[in-house]
Specification:
Elements (H helix, E strand, L loop, with lengths): L1 H21 L27 E10 L8 E2 L3 E8 L1 E6 L4 E5 L3 E3 L6 E5 L5 E10 L6 E2 L1
Antiparallel strand pairs: 1-8, 2-9, 3-6, 3-8, 4-5, 4-7
Length: 137
């Protein structure tokens, strides 16, 4: 009887250790927000036909994107480099590798590479199907 209990206990410990190691994935919250980087609150989203787009964007050294706006929610992850975003009223924010930017909605701005290597962005767009990802000024 004692041998059976010991074996059951060892079996239980083995299962517990296997279960713990099977779920050892690490997760880090990179962004959790209710507003864009200029403190404008997200309004209630009414999306009848949602469309999600993910882009990889590379901005070369000394390159500047055109002035544009987004009419949908988008989040940019800076995978590599240094990015400065400037609004049409000269408010700016600078981001570095590993940082996340909740982009402006409906406000004109542009991004520029202010570092010494290409900027690599992964940008997630969420909006109504068919909405342009950006509109140039």
């Amino acid at each position: 009887m004692k041998k059976t209990i010991k074996l059951a206990f060892v079996f239980f410990i083995m299962i517990l250790c296997t279960t713990i190691s099977a779920y050892s994935a690490q997760k880090d919250v990179l962004l959790k927000t209710t507003q864009t980087w200029d403190n404008a609150a997200y309004k209630k989203l009414k999306i009848k036909k949602p469309e999600v787009t993910v882009l990889k964007i590379i901005i070369n050294v000394n390159e500047e994107l055109p002035m544009h706006k987004h009419d949908l929610v988008n989040i940019a992850y800076v995978k590599k480099g240094t990015l400065t975003v400037v609004t049409d009223n000269n408010k700016e924010i600078t981001l570095h590798e590993g940082e996340v930017l909740p982009e402006l909605i409906g406000k004109y701005h542009y991004g520029k590479n202010t570092g010494n290597e290409p900027v690599e962005l992964i940008v997630f767009y969420i909006g109504e199907k068919g909405t342009p990802l950006s509109v140039n000024k």
